[in-house]
Each structure stands twice: as structure tokens, then as C-alpha cells.
């Protein structure tokens, strides 16, 4: 039995709550993960996990053992990366999930520079706007806009994204140019709604001008939970959009989107990178987080 791989397999099963998800994140078969954990239990002569048909639960002995395993794996990695010549070359696979527009418009164009700097890091990039559970899904970190309220995650604020209000010329030709944000709630106007991870599924937009404040919800013809679809709906003339600069800039420059309420200030959107609070932060994850901060700095307010 390879004790290192057995401990690594056990820790990932605890973190994901599943042999299948642990196997996927470690790029091993479920059978291999099961055998490694069974061999570890046989060597220790204790039951580390309780298995049911639906869920895996860690035992009291398993929980205590897990705490030691996490520290030991972290120390082993620190020893390896602390060697001369190794410290400058983080390596291994890294699973990251980011919003789809950010992946398309910012991260993918910049990844050649990241790979040139860290050629030994294999990046598995999920591009989605769905709510991702890094613990259950074995994701090393996520990048998300909006408030971070999950206590199981540690979050680092990357940037405050500047937001603007936009609409397609076809929409404005049909609905007219609104003079005040509150007009967007009136009949004849529509917004494109985004489904946030909030109890009512969306958040009002706060706008300010000379001490005046307006909260805009508005009627919508379509609501989506994907940033690329949200942008496409606005370009198709389905309603008014609230967009960060990195999404709006190319379309505003071409005239495909026109800015609205330019004398109003829209509250910035915080952007976070977050990772499981109980998981060791590897060197490859640290350099990726630092790179995200460096990359997104110019996008902030």
C-alpha cells in the first residue's frame, strides 16, 4: 500500500463526501479509491468512514485522523516546494471554476502568460455561473462576483468591478431613452434579469446621484443564470443590462450597446476568489490566486 496516496484518497473522500467525487478529482477510478481507503483502515485497524448507499460519513476516529492527515500532507508539500529549485516551480493539477464571461473575455486570453510563468501547473477550468460547492465537488477554488456568505469557504477580495447600465439601440428605438432609473420599472421598459444565489433569485441594483438613491428591479422578459446568455439577451434588444466594464467595453466601443444614466453611480460588484476553509492551500493554488489578483486589478474601481 502506498500510504501517501491512501491518505490523500481518504482526505479527499472526507472533503467531497463521496468515493465517486474523490475519484474524479484525483483522476483515479472509484475502485482504486475504495481499495486505498480499505487498506488504510486495515493497517490502522479502525473504521474511518461509515458507508451508506447515499452518503459517506466520517467516524469519530476518522475525523481525528483526518486532522492529522491534512497537516501531514501540507508538511510534505512544504518540504518538497521548499527545496532549492523547487520553490520557483509549483506543479500539479488545479481545479478552478470561474464565471463564464470572465473565462471567455479575461482569463483565457491571459492564460498563455500564466502557463509561460508556471509551465508545470495543469489547470482544469470550469466556466459556469452555477453555484459550485468546492468542498463537495473537489474544486480547489472558485472566482465569483457578489457577496460571499458561505462560512465553509475562505475568501479573498480580488477587485471591485465597475458597473454600468447599457441597452441595445434596437431596444431604445422601441422603448425610448429612459431619463431616470425609476422609469425602468414602468410599463414599456424591460430589464434583462440575472438569477443570483439569493432567496428571491435576483438582487436590486443600487444607483446614486448627488445624494439621491434609486433601487432598480424592473420588469423582465427573460431571466437567466448565465453571464454569456445575459449579455446575448441584451444585445438582442430584450432589455436593459447592468454590466462590468470588462464585458461591456467592446460592445460599447462598437455601438452594439449604448450607455445609460452616465451621470449616475452604480455600486461596484465585489469579486472574490474562494476556497474550502479546511483544505490546505497548496503553492500552486497560492500562485494562481496571486495571479488572479494581478490580472483583475486593472478591472477594479
From TrEMBL:
GO MF, one example: DNA-binding transcription factor activity
* UniProt keyword list: DNA-binding, Transcription, Transcription regulation
Keyword Ribonucleoprotein found: no
Q: Name one GO biological process term.
A: DNA-templated transcription
Sorted alphabetically, which SUPFAM superfamilies does this protein's record hold? Periplasmic binding protein-like II (SSF53850), Winged helix' DNA-binding domain (SSF46785)
Q: Where is the HTH lysR-type domain?
A: 1-59
Question: InterPro entries in the record, alphabetically?
Answer: LysR-type_TF_proteobact-type (IPR058163), LysR_HTH_N (IPR000847), LysR_subst-bd (IPR005119), WH-like_DNA-bd_sf (IPR036388), WH_DNA-bd_sf (IPR036390)
- Identify its protein family: Belongs to the LysR transcriptional regulatory family.
Protein name, entry field: LysR family transcriptional regulator
**Which species is listed as the source?**
Pseudoduganella armeniaca
Taxonomically, what lineage is the organism? Bacteria, Pseudomonadati, Pseudomonadota, Betaproteobacteria, Burkholderiales
Amino acid at each position: 500500500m502506498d500510504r501517501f496516496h491512501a491518505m490523500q484518497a481518504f482526505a479527499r473522500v472526507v472533503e467531497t463526501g463521496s468515493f465517486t467525487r474523490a475519484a474524479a478529482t484525483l483522476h483515479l477510478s472509484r475502485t482504486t479509491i475504495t481499495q486505498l481507503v480499505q487498506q488504510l483502515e486495515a493497517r490502522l485497524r479502525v473504521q474511518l468512514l461509515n458507508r451508506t448507499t447515499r452518503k459517506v460519513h466520517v467516524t469519530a476516529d476518522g475525523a481525528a485522523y483526518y486532522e492529522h492527515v491534512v497537516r501531514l500532507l501540507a508538511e510534505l508539500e512544504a518540504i518538497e516546494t521548499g527545496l532549492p529549485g523547487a520553490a520557483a516551480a509549483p506543479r500539479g493539477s488545479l481545479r478552478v471554476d470561474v464565471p463564464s464571461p470572465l473565462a471567455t473575455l479575461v482569463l483565457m486570453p491571459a492564460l498563455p502568460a500564466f502557463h509561460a510563468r508556471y509551465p508545470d501547473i495543469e489547470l482544469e477550468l470550469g466556466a459556469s455561473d452555477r453555484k459550485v460547492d468546492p468542498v463537495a465537488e473537489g474544486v480547489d477554488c472558485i472566482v465569483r462576483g457578489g457577496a460571499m456568505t458561505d462560512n465553509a469557504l475562505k475568501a479573498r477580495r480580488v477587485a471591485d468591478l465597475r458597473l454600468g447600465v447599457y441597452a441595445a439601440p434596437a431596444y431604445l428605438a422601441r422603448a425610448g431613452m429612459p431619463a431616470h432609473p425609476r422609469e425602468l420599472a414602468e410599463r414599456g421598459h424591460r430589464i434583462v434579469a440575472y438569477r443570483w444565489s439569493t432567496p428571491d433569485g435576483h438582487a436590486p441594483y443600487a444607483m446614486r446621484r448627488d445624494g439621491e438613491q434609486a433601487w432598480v428591479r424592473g420588469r423582465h422578459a427573460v431571466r437567466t443564470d448565465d453571464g454569456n446568455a445575459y449579455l446575448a439577451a441584451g444585445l438582442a434588444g430584450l432589455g436593459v443590462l447592468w454590466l462590468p466594464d470588462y464585458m461591456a467595453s467592446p460592445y460599447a466601443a462598437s455601438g452594439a450597446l449604448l450607455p445609460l444614466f452616465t451621470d449616475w453611480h452604480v455600486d461596484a460588484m465585489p469579486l472574490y476568489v474562494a476556497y474550502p476553509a479546511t483544505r490546505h492551500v497548496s503553492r500552486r493554488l497560492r500562485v494562481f490566486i496571486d495571479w488572479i489578483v494581478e490580472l483583475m486589478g486593472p478591472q477594479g474601481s
